[in-house]
Design goal:
Alpha-D-Glucose-1,6-Bisphosphate, Chain A, domain 4, DUF4468 domain-containing protein, elongated, signal, alpha+beta, 180 residues
């Protein structure tokens, strides 16, 4: 093999690795095309009523960002509501704060519960207002729309996607801990 052939071969390999699509970190529901996290969680000796009260307490414990319950069905063991969390995304030398809103659904039975997280929205926040109140800049936008945008800031979109995924996984762990 000549040195030019080897160089061409190595360039092709390098090109294949650099143009490969990034791994999808956010799960997408095939029917709705929305980001969707869901899981069934077993809870030893967890009666439905107790799990229901734990889920309600989880909504209430957020302080200023406490969730809003939209469906409260004790008889069928269902709670649906909205909540939000603070998301910080590093962009070059600065950190940009966002409010990540979402809908959460709890379904409880004896010894198990299901949760689902969907309808994620993102809103950029102004840093000086962060400690007292969220100062709204643009309207909430669906997270899927922001991440799909083909703008020049694809690196920032990847950072945003990774920060959102990491925060959502931490939220899931918090939910599980609160329910056990």
């Amino acid at each position: 093999m000549s040195s030019n052939s080897i160089k061409t071969f190595l360039c092709l390999i390098l090109l294949a690795f650099t143009t490969a699509a990034p791994a999808q970190t956010l799960p997408i529901d095939a029917a709705t095309r929305k980001i969707y996290y869901a899981e069934e969680v077993l809870v030893k000796d967890g009666p439905q009523l107790e799990l229901y009260h734990r889920a309600k307490a989880w909504f209430a414990k957020g302080g200023k960002s406490a969730g809003t319950i939209q469906v409260d069905d004790l008889r069928n063991g269902v709670l649906i509501g909205t909540n939000n969390l603070l998301l910080r995304v590093s962009q070059n030398t600065k950190t940009q704060p966002y409010r990540l809103g979402y809908t959460v659904k709890f379904e409880m039975e004896d010894d198990c519960f299901w949760y689902s997280l969907t309808n994620f929205t993102l809103q950029k926040l102004a840093e000086p207002e962060l400690t007292t109140n969220f100062k709204k800049l643009p309207q909430d936008q669906p997270l899927e729309t922001i991440l799909k945008s083909d703008n020049k800031n694809s690196l920032n979109n990847k950072r945003l996607q990774n920060a959102a995924h990491t925060s959502i996984l931490a939220l899931i762990e918090e939910i599980k801990k609160s329910m056990n």
